[in-house]
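Section 3.1 - Work completed
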Amino acid sequence: MDPLDAITRTLAGSGIAARRPLHGGDLSEVTRLTLEDGRDIVAKTGPMVDREARMLGAIRAARAPAPAVIGVSDDVLLMEALDEAGPGDGSWAAVAKALATLHADTGEDYGWDEDYAFGRVEIVNAPRDDWPAFWGENRLRAHLPHLPGALSTRLEALIARLADILPERPRPALLHGDLWTGNLLFGPAPAVHFIDPACYYGDPEVDLAMLHLFGAPGPGFDAAYGPLDQGWEERRAVYTLWPALVHLRLFGAGYRGLVERLLDELGH
């Protein structure tokens, strides 16, 4: 028997009648399945899908929108299928309100109870009670051995002065952790769901920085989310640096210019 069919029979109670590939990330495979009983579900195959399932559950427990998990087996995650559409009237305001709802869920410290990874790039989530230390040690320092010497030296100098840039104890908000537009699933306006999370507790500005990395949210977002604390521009550069380093390691030298520009902005 086909392994995926066997998994759907066990977890969803029905075999597969039809399959359609969906756009997925670079590190996983996503397929929309029509089951023999007529239901549509989504199967995601890849590493750490069990951890992703727990993160989706945490997002839903915070009353923020995310697909419901049907079940997990080995490297397969089954989720509810959601209708997709382009952003329309009110969609970006809905993103802001959903993100504010997510960020209203708070933890005691910064981090998560499990590590995660983007491909070969490990994401260390060991909890800390000092936010600059978390960002420096858990997010930035791990990249030092993988960078050319000049970049490594510049990054190490930045890590040494993070306490002068970042707040010591911002509210530990539940973060999506990888919030670019490709991880927003827009439905008929204004519906939106968070997908492909890399959750942990941290400064809510981290998600906002990621959302602005490859562009800017659409109309209505800023007003619906609300104002940011003074100094957010410099903090945004620090927070954007982490995904830039991840992209440099995963996808190559084409992202070196972005890393260098961010370090320039930060005086390093």
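Second construct:
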Amino acid sequence: MTTAKTILKIDASARKAGSMTREMTDTLVARLLASDADARVLTRDVSAGLPIVDEAWIAANFTDPAERTPEQKLKLALSDTLVAELKSADVVVIAAPLYNFGIPSSLKAWVDMIARARETFRYTEAGPEGLLKGKKAYLVVATGGTPVNSPVDFATPYLKHVLAFVGITDVQVVAADLYSTDVEAKRAAARAAVEQAVSSAA
């Protein structure tokens, strides 16, 4: 018996209407559902912002779970939820608009909340080891004027590195870049890239 997949979709664009990444990730998820109608979709919109890592969070994170105070458990509650969502997912779809050559601060805060020793990675004598192996990830990267994977695209390689760090190495990038030059043509190209990415992974 095959268990239906769980798809985790991360939205990060500050724009609700007219967002290329939101449009393309919705298209991608719809395409995934077309091949697995029983799949479950979890959506996490981080665009409104997440708490940043502060001294109290660090202290709670590095305290043995059995010894954490109620206040420390509360401090880590959102991070625990985000980690649980990521652990439960078979497929991760991340919408990554390029803001000033990098990812939005809200998406960076999500990374900081899920990159946790003993939860999503561990340190070994051979170096860090990701604990979230066996997952598939899609990065939908949208830019107005910066080519994806160019020397000034610091978002795509960063997110690929972060995902690999926690064990997710099967990553496909869907580029929705340079759309400020011709929105409709770039939208069509991005939709074609979505189709190709899903088809090649099937």
